[in-house]
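This is your field. Have a critical look at both lines of this record:
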Amino acid sequence: MTIPNEGKLITAQIRLYLHRPVEPGKMAWTEVDRILRDVSYETVLGLNHAITECHVYERSRERHWRETGENPPVAERGKTYNRIYAEVRGIMKTAASRIASMTVRTAVTKYRKSLQNIHSLKQSVPSYRLGHPVLLRAGSGGAVIWCDHGSYFFRGTFQNRDYDPARIAFLLDTFRLEKSRKAILDRVIAGEYRLGVCQVARDRRRRWFVRIAYSFARPEIGRDPSVCVGVSLGLAHPFCCTLNNGRGRLDCNEAQVIERFRWQIRKRIGGCQGGLKFSSRGGHGRMKSLSPVLRLSEKEKNFRDTKFHQYTSRIVEFAVKHNAGLIQIERLERFQADRKVVLGDWAIADFYSKLNYKARLAGIEVLEIDGQNAGRRCSECGRIDTASRTDHADFLCTSCGYSSHKDYNMARNMAIPGIEKLIVDEVAKTLCAEREARSLQD
């Protein structure tokens, strides 16, 4: 199979636990755990140092621009990268050179992506905390996966040549793995899927796992680009979907289920925290007392992940059923600022990421648009009026008399291609009419 260029690839991940070390032989888990924790700690130090040096270089570049009106030479940037790598290599004394290289590359990429928000004071310089995964590049000197008699193995180079052992191989915990995931591993081993960067990390239960990234060719699926699905994350429903041709509708009526679950979790967490208020235990004993709160928080996180997977799968299946080539949804920044929607109290960015990658797998484009005033616009006649939103759930147009559920009206507007320009033109038209009316009165 010929793997195309990066722009035509779809990237996904699979997470597997490390069952036990097999190479070198007779190596105890305690020794392996110490090595992995040391490399993970050095990775955090290297990431923070590299991203700090990137910020220092950016400040010097801005100062050079203010003084001379020109950017520093391109060769100076290369020298800076080499200097950062040499410094990180000195910090990561036991880690392999490939891990140090991936660490610097990850920090530089992260800083470049955050540079615009840093300049606009929307965020501070990124930093990394303890427990960050160890980054292993695919290849003979990095991460390798193979299969032997139905068992799957993973080997990575964690330490440099000055330390023994440099490479450690593990038996992967695939005994209860689904057939679909085993098929993914088989395709990665056969070369049909390209193996990406592998991340070795430890969960809260102190169990080590590997997150295997792989990429494959984007499927050529003939979707109809003229069919658009509008998605509204509403105030009364978790989501509502409709088509621009008016031939389909999908509602989710689980708002009460979500609110009841949240209330139960918060009530139980409040009871646990109330008991800790009068506790005099400190140190390790206090962490043990906090364990019920942590378990409840983990339970809420699992519930949220399950619902996000269910909702995004239903949206994508709805689009596939009607052969839609486009999904339109409001921009993420709107929901980060407005917590009134049903899903607002949760990490809504996770919902967007799940929807994006599932739509890509189905060959559907996801477009985030500015939905300002879309909730006040009548999806029937296009009139924008604040008075049309009668109460929490109903919408009644003051111009044509069209009435429907507010979330459904919002979804119909989101399903219209080019809705942003239509709203801008309608708002400008309304303002012009109001100015003419005031001038006639005067």
Q: What stands out?
A: Residues 1-7 have pLDDT under 50 and may be disordered.
